[in-house]
Every structure is written in C-alpha cells, then in structure tokens.
Amino acid sequence: MCGIVGLFLKDNSLEANLGNLLSDMLISMSDRGPDSAGIAIYADKETGRSKFTIQSENAKTDFEALPNYLSKHLNCKVETKVNDTHSVVIIDESATSKFSEALASFNPEIRIMSRGSSLEIYKEVGLPKQVTQRFNIPQMSGRHGIGHTRMATESAVTTMGAHPFNTGLDQCLVHNGSLSNHNSLRRRLRREGVHIETENDTEVGAAYLTWKMQNGATLGEALESSLEDLDGFFTFLVGTEDGFGVVRDPIACKPAVMAETDQYVAFGSEYRALVNLPEIESAHVWEPEPATVYFWKH
Residue 169 — pLDDT band, cuts 50, 70, 90? Predict the structure, then answer.
C-alpha cells in the first residue's frame, strides 16, 4: 500500500503555491506509506540549458568541490543549487552527454535523481512531512508535480528505492501496486540497453515507458501498451515536461480519485488528499476508469 498524488495547474496564479499544495496532499497520505517519500516539481526550463538533480550522502563535502570540477571537465558554465542531501546542477545543453561520466569520475557514489530541462526530484527515507520540510518543498513553485509515499514490499528501504523514478528526460513515474513480471522485464530492458539501477518494480515500469517512447511511441501509446505488457496490479501517475498522465490496470483494485476545476487537475490515492485544494467543493470529482489513459498537458 502506497500513496500517490499529483497536481497539474491550469491557472498560472497558483504556480507559486504548487509546492505547498503538493506537500499538503502528500502529507495526508502518510499512513499509506511510512518508509520513504518524494516529490517531482516541474518548473519553467531555461533555453539551451540542462538540469540534473543529484544526491550525496556526503553532501557538504561533495557539493562544495563539485561546481569547479564539473566546470573544468565539461568546459562550460555550471550553476548549482544545494538543498540538503540534494543539489540541482544546471549546465549547457551541449555538455549533457558528458555529465554522467564527469560526475562518476568525481565521485561514483553520487546518484542522479533526475535529468531534463525542467524536472527536479527530491526523495529520501522518512515520512512525507519530514521529507517535504527537509527539502523546503512548500516554498517551491512550478507548473505541475507528482508525489509518492512508500510502503516497501519488494525491495529495500533506501533513497534510490523511493519514488518518483526518472528514466527519461523530464519523465518520471510514481506507482501504487505491484508488478509481477518486473524481473523478466528488467532483464529484457537491460538487453535493449536501458539503464535500470534498482530492484524496485516501479523503476522497471518507468523504464518500460521510456523504452517505448524511445522507439517512437507517444506517452499515451506507451501507457496503452503497458496494459498488455505489464502483469500485476497498478495505478501509474507519469510526469512529463508538458503535463501528467494516469492509467490503472484492467482490474483497478488500487484506489484512485481525480478532481478538475478551471484552475487545476488533481490526483490522489484517496479523496482526503484533495480536500484542502482551492474550490474543491465545486470540482468535478470522479474515479478514473480501469484500463483507460488520461493525460493533461500545457
């Protein structure tokens, strides 16, 4: 049992309050997953620049020396924004392909949480209130975001085992459920050259969608294909640079509820995640249908 939330803003005036709204939604789901928590925030991108969120267990030491090291090895301007155990690193888009190698040469223990141009992911072991306060999520702004609180079932409770999982540029996934064929699918995807770091079934689901899109599918088509290729029970909430998508397996035994107003589209594992949103009393509220893909984009 896990809790997932998402918020897609139609009204630009709410963007400064995105982190606060998402944090409140996720904290309300705490009893669905006490092990770890994470939030993905999508903000405006900088043209010609790439953004990476990284994590270190020795953040103070690593993040002091890293900017100069990367600037020298990537031969470009490097900006960093340190946030507790995480740091957002912004570099020239032309140096993107060299970033992972340069980071590994500096310290192979530093982990990449997200890659893209607008996505930032913050996740750690702990309850949603602890994690959102630790990273000051309520003060963050953005256009849309998704969050997850985890009850571990099939893999270790670690930072890397926490959701969201990022496997493609500006793409991430949170998941409630369990995939029964993730081991065989992980082996297949790795043979196809897809990078998968953990034994978590959700990362396999995220990597599957990335792989489908790398082979020409749209996100909607990839989500449709997941209904055929992924065994088990699942509710997926997928974030992209432009918006987010939702799909539930054909049995749809995992709870889910959505709400839409002129200002936003919201998703929660339970209705209590939505009760403090603006004008929720007048929202159109419904349960997403099984085996049906929903998607909203800016």
Answer: very high
